[in-house]
Amino acid sequence: MRTILFSSQTYDRDSFLAAEQPAGIELHFQAARLSLDTAALAEHHEVVCAFINDDLGAPVLERLAAGGTRLIALRSAGYNHVDLAAAKRLGLMIVRVPAYSPHAVAEHAVALILALNRRLHRAYNRTREGDFSLHGLTGFDLVGKTVGVVGTGQIGATFAKIMNGFGCQLLAYDPFPNPQVEALGARYLSLPQLLAESQIISLHCPLNEQSKHLINHESLAHMQPGAMLINTGRGGLVDTPALIDALKEGQLGYLGLDVYEEEAQLFFEDRSDMPLQDDVLARLLTFPNVIVTAHQAFLTHEALGAIAATTLHNIAAWMAGTPENRVEGD
Length: 330
Known about the structure:
Elements: E1 2-5, H1 10-18, E2 26-29, E3 47-50, H2 58-66, E4 71-74, H3 84-90, E5 93-95, H4 102-117, H5 120-128, E6 146-150, H6 154-165, E7 169-173, H7 179-182, E8 187-188, H8 191-197, E9 200-203, H9 217-222, E10 227-231, H10 240-249, E11 252-257, H11 279-284, E12 290-292, H12 301-319, E13 326-327
Parallel strand pairs: 1-2, 1-3, 3-4, 4-5, 6-7, 6-9, 7-8, 9-10, 10-11, 11-12
Antiparallel strand pairs: 5-13
């Protein structure tokens, strides 16, 4: 079964080739991002394997279906970038990786908290330039601080467990409370209550119509002045211009992002030798109390191995007529 992997980096190739190879799957790696301009590369490939920033809107899906594609195998848990109605109309099955390593993303969120709190990004740059002064680098003890966890699925629950280990007080918001998180002593509150009572807020929810711009001017106003916000979920969970306003006003004291709403044309590529054309992101990067990483929270050996293994299993199951991990529209 001819399978093309779009947006495949060296680490993707390594993890897929290292995984157990089901019989009958022929892998072709393509570094280009899937778009209307590159969809022709998938011609005569029954399976297209796509990542989070690949374009899976209706025009691209129509082009893929016309070229013989029958299965879209996502290398991600999220599927908000897929036009499910178009896929159903075209007879394209969508499968995904529902879970790979909740520890990878949760630990990255904690890394952002620690780096922001202790100003590690600033300290690193200083010492490299021979500046060993400590002014402006004072942090705070995490023990006893109140941490709000927005979204308590596998990743949010893992994050909550880690922060509980630091001795933090836990608050949570999720339409479906998780008993594992409640067992840690977390209190489930409304989102405005959580924002008002938390010193650190971390987002771990999926992106959908209800959660889009969950953090906006109104919700930021509920936060304690100087609060820390972490987003390792999806870029669209936050209204980025609203974050910039809150940073300028001092309402938001720290910001750690591993995702960005307009990341599709930027992330996973080396653009260091060209001007940054995204004015919003460029402004965001000027703040000393902001750290942005390029959607790398998933990037651990364990997570990559799990993504490859599950994706190959999904393709093999579909070939056998017993598809698993399907994504279906309304």
